[in-house]
């Protein structure tokens, strides 16, 4: 594939890192501080979309920053898949910054400078993962992302936040610094490089054993080390950190635990399948089948969990766990439609789930209510929020004209192509479950009897909270009607 | 300009000169500090040609000086550096000025003697790394003990005498078998103390067995390897900050340096044979050290136990005998010197403010001291090997080497990595956010200029090695390649029990080489003595004339 060298990916990563420093320095002036975040978000988004024409023409952008060891570099490579993820997260960062200003100031939260600083670093890391050209770069930004989001998770600093924070680190850093690091080192031992390769990094191995272990067995073990090493993807049983992390402020849950952090996990699994093992090796070792089974179990089980949650954010969290596995299921099908469906879900779910989280936050800001059972009839007071929530729900369920439909359509075609009827059943069943856990929320909010006080004193959230959620809701619809842009990116990305 | 061949001698004698000047000057704390700083900085500047003029393509000794010292026993003053030692010498010259700086305010009694001890210690440590003569090596090896003993015993904490004695006794216990081994090598290797010559010899299996274990005891105590590590936490806890820094950054490296310089080349077959034991001990050290670090409530003890774990990675890398492993091990020695040194400096800084090493008393700093917290965080991350920091590169190489040689050992050592992450992050969490038990009125101020100046050089190195380790690895590579090829080529030892004489190497090329050397030695001009072959030959000649 043709490549050009350009510093743009590095700039896209650095913009928010520089913004983090500026944010830290302007802690006395909140307006300036948030101005830096917003400005950096805009610049970052512009840098990212400026790369689109080149990428769509089938050219890859590369940039090597440091050569560390032979075959180990800090290097960026922009392809369609990475650009898709970067466009999504940089756009949503701008929106979330506006939302954060509304949310954090209305609730008069403490440590806001720390909050915005960590947020900016998190975005740099997410961008770094999106543009990573090899496993080292991926791992580098993956680890920084885990560490810099910890202060956001424990923001309230109460006992339960510390428990959540400990769990967060235990799952994410524990998995990455043990099995993921082990898998990366084994990859380096086997191939002498960490560079991604669409044909499969292990395709060229001629030896039959390594340290007394058969190569196919070793590769299978390594695959599972990678799969669970990327604990951010939330595959069961490594999913439990995500519901716990819901103690974080809602904008954090929205951008990080619906978009940046979890999507980094899912994105890494896409890279694992497409660029590390490569489709041929995956097929030879039947790894796609195992992965599909794990993803299916995760989809169904966490949807069932979601049904039992009364706390709105917890229900959203379990829904996220299940939706992430759609991405994994899609790429595990190893067919073009399946992989397309999986990757496009990174965008679709991002817009959808951030809308839903924004709505949950909006309800909390306006009413301090967190449980679904307390929200009956609230739509009369907060019509815009509930309307956006309804759009998000429809998208998750997979109704045509909403973003989620595009995913399910491609996934369903993928299962039919590969004649995996069981998996088609899983997708259809999970749609029913999605409807079962979101429809009642909307139904209750709209048609439920308001409590005795009639939600007195509650009105729509401030406009800084409202506008972002309307933008993302509109995005959800737009993606359902016009998914072509991102589909084209995927087409050049997986070619 | 200084002539190349005098450089190493200058590095040894300049600090001694500095100590003498401090000793002769009138007692004035300010003067002592400034003279010490000036001399340590001068030594650092003088050592810089080692970095710039080092020939990276050669595994031979460079900057060699060789003067006959006690001809009767064929003892020479011979110094030189190769890829194994060059970075360690530079590390020593870099760390010592930082040690002077960090003691600026912390040491206020007997400053004169303290600075003298520090300078003498620097000289002795450099001497150990550059000695090319076993006798000279042993002199420096013992000499370095005395200033350290004094620094712990005089300027240390409450249990300083106990800790100093324990340190001294442990190290002495290791030195005695080593002395026997050195003498045995002297007689077996043809009455020479020349390290380069002795490294080329091939010895019988039994002889190797004894030499290996004698050296092992000395080096294992110094590293320290499990189960000889118990002196280390005591010494670290009681030593003043500079003592801990010198101990962790430089002195522990003497052991691992010894393995590379003596055990591997002189007892290659024994090294191979006993590698499984060493690997097992290294893995235990990694897991046990990290586990002990996890439960410490004393900051210095935590960092001390982390050293046990980190040095486990170094011995692990050495004894897998492949180039990645050994390159990683040497780089990891430097890395450990940088990050652990920096962590001890950080602990010292907080101790100066709270007068307590307990995590509980030092915790809950939050963002009241932003510079301190940021630096501490970076050095902790570097210590557990976050990608982008120096330790990641070293650990990565060691782990690649380990996995290549043994999957199970690799898997266990990865377990140590996770524990390292756990205790470092937990410590950091408590320091930044934990509940504290400080008394009212204890003010924790942020770093002053002197303290920042102490930490910044180490900070630069953390990222320099983290992102661009090539200049460092470049200097190591040729020597490592040589060691690895020596280890993998069969020396053809006659495994005859009890046959302790030199077994002539059966490889035809080597014998031929010897023959060439023999004839060439006669016409060699004395000025050429820096590359001079083996005094074994001159010995041989001497015997014949006698």
Description:
The complex is a heterodimer of chains A (495) and B (546). Chain A is mostly helical and 495 residues long. Chain A has helices at 8-25, 30-50, 52-56, 80-106, 112-131, 135-153, 159-191, 215-229, 241-244, 250-284, 287-308, 312-332, 336-367, 383-397, 403-417, 421-447, 463-481, 484-494, and strands at residues 3-5, 60-69, 72-78, 209-210, 213-214. Chain A has a three-stranded mixed sheet. A two-stranded antiparallel sheet of chain A has the order 4-5. In chain A, a hairpin with a 2-residue loop joins strand 4 (209-210) and strand 5. In chain A, helix 15 (403-417) runs parallel beside helix 17 (463-481). The longest helix of chain A has 35 residues, at 250-284. The radius of gyration of chain A is 22 Å and the shape is globular. Chain A starts with a strand and ends with a helix. Chain B is mainly alpha-helical and 546 residues long. Among the domains of chain B are: 276-497, no CATH class; 498-545, no CATH class. Helix content of chain B is 72%, strand content 3%. Chain B has 22 helices and two strands. Chain B has helices at 7-24, 29-52, 86-102, 111-130, 134-143, 145-155, 160-188, 195-200, 205-222, 231-238, 241-266, 268-294, 299-318, 323-354, 359-362, 370-384, 390-405, 407-433, 449-467, 470-488, 508-523, 535-545, and strands at 62-70, 75-81. In chain B, strands 1-2 form a two-stranded antiparallel sheet. The two termini of chain B are 43 Å apart. Classes of the chains: A mainly alpha (495), B mainly alpha (546). Chains A and B meet through strand 2, helix 6 and helix 7 of A and helix 17 and helix 18 of B.
How is this fold's topology laid out?
The complex is a heterodimer of chains A (about 500) and B (about 550).
Chain A: E1 3-5, H1 8-25, H2 30-50, H3 52-56, E2 60-69, E3 72-78, H4 80-106, H5 112-131, H6 135-153, H7 159-191, E4 209-210, E5 213-214, H8 215-229, H9 241-244, H10 250-284, H11 287-308, H12 312-332, H13 336-367, H14 383-397, H15 403-417, H16 421-447, H17 463-481, H18 484-494
Parallel strand pairs in A: 1-2
Antiparallel strand pairs in A: 2-3, 4-5
Chain B: H1 7-24, H2 29-52, E1 62-70, E2 75-81, H3 86-102, H4 111-130, H5 134-143, H6 145-155, H7 160-188, H8 195-200, H9 205-222, H10 231-238, H11 241-266, H12 268-294, H13 299-318, H14 323-354, H15 359-362, H16 370-384, H17 390-405, H18 407-433, H19 449-467, H20 470-488, H21 508-523, H22 535-545
Antiparallel strand pairs in B: 1-2
Helix pairs in contact in B: 1-2, 1-4, 2-3, 2-4, 3-4, 3-11, 3-14, 3-19, 4-5, 4-6, 4-11, 5-7, 6-7, 7-9, 7-10, 9-11, 9-12, 10-13, 11-12, 11-13, 11-14, 12-13, 12-18, 13-14, 13-17, 13-18, 14-16, 14-17, 14-19, 14-20, 16-18, 17-18, 17-19
């Amino acid at each position: 594939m043709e490549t050009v060298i350009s510093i743009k990916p590095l700039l896209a990563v650095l913009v928010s890192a520089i913004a983090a420093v500026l944010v830290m320095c302007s802690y006395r002036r909140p307006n300036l501080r948030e101005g830096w975040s917003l400005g950096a978000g805009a610049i970052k988004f512009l840098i990212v979309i400026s790369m689109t024409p080149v990428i769509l023409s089938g050219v890859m952008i590369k940039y090597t920053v440091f050569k560390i060891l032979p075959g180990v570099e800090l290097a960026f490579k922009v392809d369609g898949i990475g650009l898709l993820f970067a466009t999504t997260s940089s756009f949503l960062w701008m929106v979330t910054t506006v939302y954060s200003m509304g949310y954090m100031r209305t609730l008069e939260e403490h440590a806001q400078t720390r909050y915005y600083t960590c947020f900016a670093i998190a975005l740099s890391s997410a961008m770094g993962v999106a543009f990573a050209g090899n496993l080292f770069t991926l791992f580098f930004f993956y680890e920084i992302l885990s560490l810099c989001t910890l202060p956001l998770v424990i923001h309230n600093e109460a006992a339960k936040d510390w428990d959540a924070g400990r769990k967060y680190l235990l799952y994410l850093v524990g998995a990455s610094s043990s099995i993921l690091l082990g898998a990366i080192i084994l990859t380096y031992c086997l191939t002498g490089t960490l560079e991604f390769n669409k044909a499969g990094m292990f395709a060229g191995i001629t030896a039959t054993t390594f340290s007394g272990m058969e190569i196919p067995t070793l590769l299978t073990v390594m695959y599972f080390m990678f799969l669970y090493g990327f604990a951010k993807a939330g595959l069961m049983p490594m999913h439990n950190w995500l519901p716990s992390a819901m103690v974080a402020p809602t904008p954090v849950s929205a951008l990080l635990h619906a978009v940046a952090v979890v999507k980094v996990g899912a994105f890494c699994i896409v890279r694992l399948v497409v660029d590390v093992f490569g489709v041929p090796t995956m097929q030879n070792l039947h790894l796609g089948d195992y992965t599909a089974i794990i993803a299916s179990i995760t989809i169904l089980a966490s949807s069932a969990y979601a049904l039992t949650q009364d706390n709105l954010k917890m229900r959203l969290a379990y829904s996220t766990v299940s939706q992430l596995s759609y991405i994994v299921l899609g790429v595990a099908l190893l067919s073009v439609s399946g992989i397309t469906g999986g990757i496009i879900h990174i965008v679709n779910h991002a817009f959808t789930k951030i809308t839903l989280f924004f709505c949950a936050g909006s309800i909390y800001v306006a009413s301090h209510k967190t449980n679904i059972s307390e929200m009956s009839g609230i739509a009369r007071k907060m019509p815009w929020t509930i309307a956006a929530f309804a759009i998000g729900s429809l998208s998750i369920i997979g109704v045509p004209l909403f973003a989620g439909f595009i995913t399910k359509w491609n996934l369903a075609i993928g299962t039919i192509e590969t004649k995996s009827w069981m998996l088609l059943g899983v997708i259809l069943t999970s749609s029913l479950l999605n409807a079962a856990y979101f429809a009642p929320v909307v139904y209750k909010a709209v048609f439920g009897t308001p409590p005795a006080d009639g939600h007195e004193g509650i009105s729509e959230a401030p406009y800084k909270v409202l506008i972002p959620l309307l933008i993302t809701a509109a995005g959800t619809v737009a993606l359902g009607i016009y998914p072509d842009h991102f589909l084209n990116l995927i087409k050049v990305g997986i070619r | 300009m200084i002539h190349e061949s005098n450089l190493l001698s200058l590095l040894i004698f300049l600090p001694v000169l500095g100590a003498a000047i401090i000793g002769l000057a009138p007692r004035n704390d300010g003067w002592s500090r400034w003279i010490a700083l000036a001399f340590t900085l001068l030594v650092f500047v003088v050592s810089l040609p080692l970095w710039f003029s080092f020939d990276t393509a050669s595994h031979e000794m460079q900057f060699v000086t060789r003067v006959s010292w006690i001809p009767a026993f064929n003892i020479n003053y011979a110094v030189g550096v190769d890829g194994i030692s060059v970075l360690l010498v530079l590390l020593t010259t870099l760390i010592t000025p930082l040690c002077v700086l960090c003691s600026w305010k912390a040491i206020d009694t007997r400053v004169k003697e303290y600075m003298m001890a520090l300078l003498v210690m620097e000289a002795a440590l450099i001497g150990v790394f550059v000695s090319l003569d076993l006798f000279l090596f042993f002199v420096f090896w013992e000499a370095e003990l005395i200033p350290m003993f004094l620094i712990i015993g005089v300027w240390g904490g409450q249990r300083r005498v106990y800790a100093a004695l324990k340190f001294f006794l442990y190290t002495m216990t290791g030195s005695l078998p080593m002395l026997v081994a050195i003498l045995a090598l002297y007689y077996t290797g043809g009455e020479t103390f020349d390290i380069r010559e002795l490294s080329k010899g091939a010895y019988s299996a039994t002889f190797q067995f004894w030499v290996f274990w004698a050296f092992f005891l000395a080096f294992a105590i110094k590293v320290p390897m499990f189960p000889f590590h118990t002196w280390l936490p005591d010494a670290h806890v009681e030593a003043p900050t500079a003592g801990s820094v010198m101990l962790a950054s430089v002195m522990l490296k003497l052991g691992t340096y010894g393995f590379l310089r003596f055990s591997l080349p002189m007892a290659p077959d024994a090294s191979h044979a006993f590698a499984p034991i060493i690997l097992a001990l290294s893995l235990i050290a990694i897991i046990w050290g990290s586990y002990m670090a996890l439960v410490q409530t004393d900051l210095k003890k935590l960092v001390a136990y982390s050293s046990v774990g980190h040095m486990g990675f170094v011995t692990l890398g050495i004894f897998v005998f492949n180039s990645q492993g050994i390159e990683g091990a040497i780089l990891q020695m430097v890395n450990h010197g940088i990050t652990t040194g920096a962590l001890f400096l950080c602990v010292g800084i907080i101790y100066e403010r709270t007068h307590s090493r307990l995590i509980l008393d030092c915790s809950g700093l939050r963002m009241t001291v932003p510079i301190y917290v940021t630096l501490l965080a970076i050095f902790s991350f570097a210590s557990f090997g976050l990608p982008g920091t120096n330790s990641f590169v070293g650990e990565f190489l060691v782990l690649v080497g380990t996995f290549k040689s043994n999957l199970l050992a690799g898997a266990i050592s990865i377990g140590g990595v996770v524990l390292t992450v756990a205790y470092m992050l937990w410590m950091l969490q408590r320091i930044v956010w934990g509940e504290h038990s400080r008394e009212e009125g204890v003010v924790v101020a942020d770093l002053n200029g002197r303290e920042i100046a102490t930490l910044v050089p180490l900070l630069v190195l953390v990222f320099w090695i983290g992102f661009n380790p090539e200049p460092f690895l470049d200097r190591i590579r040729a020597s490592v390649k040589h060691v690895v090829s020596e280890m993998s080529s069969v020396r053809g030892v006659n495994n005859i029990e009890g046959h302790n004489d030199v077994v002539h190497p059966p490889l035809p090329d080597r014998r031929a080489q010897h023959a060439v050397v023999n004839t060439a030695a006669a016409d060699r001009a004395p000025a050429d003595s820096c590359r001079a072959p083996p005094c074994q030959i001159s010995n041989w000649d001497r015997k014949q004339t006698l």
